Amino acid sequence: MRTPGRPRDTRRDEAIISATLHTLADYGFAGLSMEAVAARAGVGKATVYRRWPTKDALVVEALGTLADLSGGAQTGSLRDDLVAWLNTVRKHSIQTLAGRIMPRLLAEKEEHPNLFEAYRRRVMAPARDRVAALLRGGIVSGELSPDIDIEMIIDMLIGSVAYWQYTGHSRDVTGSRITGVVDTVLRGILQRSGSDTAGMPAAG
Asked: Which has fewest Cβ within 10 Å: 62, 79, 138, 204?
């Protein structure tokens, strides 16, 4: 009867995954090697290869551990929920490891589309799903016009943050500017009635 081998050390797994993500953020996929990951994790190269036979497999699994952008609990106010969510996106883009990795994957998307897709599924898709649910709720409640293009609205909201991030202005973006983006978008999609724009500043 074959005796069981030594249990896999999960601490090594965590160290390797962390080293992979930090190396990816620093150098991109093209600049990442199994040797560099092993050195950064403080393990032997063979230890990495026993767990992940290829660089692609390692990076895809590492990307699957990133935190998503689904956001927190709903407040009952569509405007406040959208502002809170977009602020989360803004902070995520400049303060987290996932935010640092995003431009690296975009730059290499044509050569390695599977990696960007793994990132999209793990980080971006939950964020879009959350705001889509908020917008659908606004339609059901009668706050929003029923004929709005939800995907386009999401692109408009995220696009503003992406522009600031990738043109080097993300650190200058304040909470009031985020609120202004949400208010500007909402003015175009709210149902037209006297109470629809309550609490929103007039367009200047």
From this structure: 204
User: Nearest-5° angle of CA 86, CA 182, CA 67?
Assistant: 10
Rounded CA gap, 164 and 162, in Å?
Answer: 5
Burial of 99 (0-12, 13-18, 19+ CB in 10 A): buried
Element (H, E) at 163: helix 150-166
With residues binned 3-state (H G I as helix, E B as strand, rest as coil), the percentages for the chain, rounded to 5, are: 65, 0, 35
In the prediction, which pLDDT does 139 show? 92
Which distant-in-sequence residues (6+ apart) come within 8 Å of 43 by Cβ? 12, 15, 16
Q: Which domains does the chain possess?
A: 10-65 (1.10.10.60), 67-187 (1.10.357.10)
The pTM assigned to this predicted structure is 0.75
**Distance (Å, whole) CA 42 – CA 50:** 15
pLDDT digits (tens, 9 = 90+) for 169-191: 656 566 788 899 999 999 988 87
How many CB atoms neighbour CB 175 within 10 A?
Answer: 11
pLDDT at 63 over 50: yes
